[in-house]
């Protein structure tokens, strides 16, 4: 009951005209970003992060949440009409959605994706409302060794399961942990890996790294692969949702929601795994299996619902434990930290009004996204026509201006360029960037908790693994790794058969 009361108070805050405007700005930016191939929510949040320092925390976080949800909506447009997923989670949507568009049913594909996203996003946000306070209450009782165990779970699963190679994921994580060590050791006061540069004694700012990896690295990568000539976009044709399409879509929406949300709450679950699982489930349960691969509407409805449900699920460990499990979540954690707010068990206690306003804005943003995506889809299609050189030149300009605005230090621009080049080569050679950002954010926190544990235990290393919660967490880690490897093999098998 307390959660309902706090949520109503959050609605009272989020419904103020100022915050409604911020929510509309966020979902509009997110949708536009999701439509553009190769520009994901993580990049947009990273780009806007330095530019929102003049806003109060509640307003900034409402904008970022809108971008996050909007990016999940917008990715379906590119997948269906261009057969080019804007986000990896939209790959499955392209399998059936593009076939529907080519068959003259593009309007129905876009409609079932938008409505399914709304249904899944709303149900998943309700689950977030009910679960998050309970998990936060339990997490308050955790000790330093328990937090070490949680972070080891996050490190291992995010690094080993994101991307095509566990070794590359671990290498990316190691690089992020190393960058997190740069600066002054809080215990001894000694400088570490600063190369004698005075401005690096305070460490490398997370915002600079996020903007460098996502914005500069992506811009350089796209420039290296830039194709010339106009982009062929399939016209939006056919009828919207007929009675038959409604009948074939509502069950996949619900199934996708309840597949996506729990997977989104576990480290390295995210939207990618849930969309492939949803697609496999719909293909197995469909009364028209022969249509799969030729434009089955169930293959759009289920995965899109799973995609958005997983996006809400990701917010559960982020808000209650302070654990980012996706690249966008990692950048949102950086947004919290830039305002001196640490996501975790005490977030609902110390910053309750702000958190509940944020959750209320998710409900409001979902309604806004439905209105934006259904009648205005032809406008979003026009966004696809923006020339890539102009688009990425603008991204680089905003990246440089935003980075300089963090500390007004020229050295940050040099670091930005170096990190951007690193991000380019990581993409070029198939290294996932999410583990780098997660390692950078959680690394210093893990170091602090390890030191606390060893101080309490007087140097006894066994204290790190002998706590009851820690033993359970490490056991769950083993199970997660086994299940995730099995799911990855199943996903590859389904990709081969499609």
From TrEMBL:
It comes from the Bacteria. InterPro entries: DUF112_TM (IPR002823). The keyword Membrane applies. The chain crosses the membrane at residues 20-39, 45-69, 107-132, 144-163, 170-191, 203-223, 314-336, 356-381, 393-426, 471-489. Residues 20-437 form the DUF112 domain. Pfam families: TctA. The keyword ATP-binding does not apply. Keywords: Membrane, Transmembrane, Transmembrane helix. This is Tripartite tricarboxylate transporter permease. It comes from Lentzea kristufekii. The lineage of its organism: Bacteria, Bacillati, Actinomycetota, Actinomycetes, Pseudonocardiales.
């Amino acid at each position: 009951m307390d959660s309902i009361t706090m949520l109503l108070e959050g609605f009272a805050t989020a419904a103020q005209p100022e915050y409604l405007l911020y929510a509309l700005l966020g979902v509009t930016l997110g949708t536009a970003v999701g439509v553009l191939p190769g520009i994901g929510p993580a990049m947009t949040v990273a780009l806007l992060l330095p530019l929102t320092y003049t806003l109060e925390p509640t307003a900034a976080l409402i904008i970022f949440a809108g971008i996050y949800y909007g990016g999940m909506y917008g990715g379906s447009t590119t997948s269906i009409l261009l057969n080019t997923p804007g986000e990896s989670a939209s790959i499955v949507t392209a399998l059936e959605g593009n076939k529907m568009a080519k068959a003259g049913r593009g309007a129905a594909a876009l409609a079932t994706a938008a409505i399914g996203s709304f249904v899944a996003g709303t149900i998943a946000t309700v689950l977030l409302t009910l679960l998050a306070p309970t998990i936060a209450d339990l997490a308050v009782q955790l000790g330093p060794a328990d937090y070490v165990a949680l972070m080891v779970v996050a490190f291992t699963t995010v690094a080993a399961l994101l991307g095509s190679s566990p070794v590359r994921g671990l290498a990316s994580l190691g690089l992020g942990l190393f960058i997190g060590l740069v600066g002054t050791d809080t215990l001894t006061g000694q400088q570490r890996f600063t190369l004698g540069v005075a401005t690096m004694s305070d460490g490398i700012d997370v915002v600079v790294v996020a903007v460098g990896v996502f914005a500069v690295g992506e811009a350089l990568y796209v420039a290296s692969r830039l194709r010339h000539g106009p982009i062929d976009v399939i016209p939006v044709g056919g009828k919207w949702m007929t009675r038959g399409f409604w009948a074939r879509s509502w069950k996949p929406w619900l199934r996708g929601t309840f597949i996506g949300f729990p997977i989104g709450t576990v480290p390295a679950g995210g939207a990618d795994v849930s969309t492939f699982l949803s697609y496999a489930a719909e293909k197995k349960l469909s009364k028209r299996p022969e249509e799969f691969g030729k434009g089955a509407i169930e293959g759009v409805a289920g995965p899109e619902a799973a995609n958005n449900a997983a996006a809400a699920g990701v917010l559960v460990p982020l808000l209650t434990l302070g654990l980012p499990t996706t690249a966008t979540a990692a950048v949102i954690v950086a947004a919290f930290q830039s305002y001196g707010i640490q996501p975790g068990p005490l977030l609902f206690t110390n910053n309750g009004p702000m958190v509940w306003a944020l959750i209320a804005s998710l409900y409001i943003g979902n309604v806004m996204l439905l209105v934006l995506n259904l009648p205005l889809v032809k406008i979003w299609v026009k966004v696809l026509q923006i020339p890539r050189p102009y688009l990425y030149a603008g991204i680089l300009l905003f990246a440089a201006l935003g980075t300089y605005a963090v500390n007004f230090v020229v050295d940050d621009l040099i670091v930005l360029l170096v990190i951007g080049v690193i991000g380019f080569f990581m993409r070029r050679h198939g290294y996932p960037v999410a583990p780098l950002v997660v390692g950078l954010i959680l690394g210093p926190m893990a170091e602090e908790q390890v030191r606390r544990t060893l101080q309490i235990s007087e140097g006894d290393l066994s204290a790190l693994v002998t706590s009851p919660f820690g033993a359970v967490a490490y056991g769950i880690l083993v199970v997660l790794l086994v299940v995730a490897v099995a799911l990855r093999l199943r996903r590859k098998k389904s990709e081969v058969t499609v």
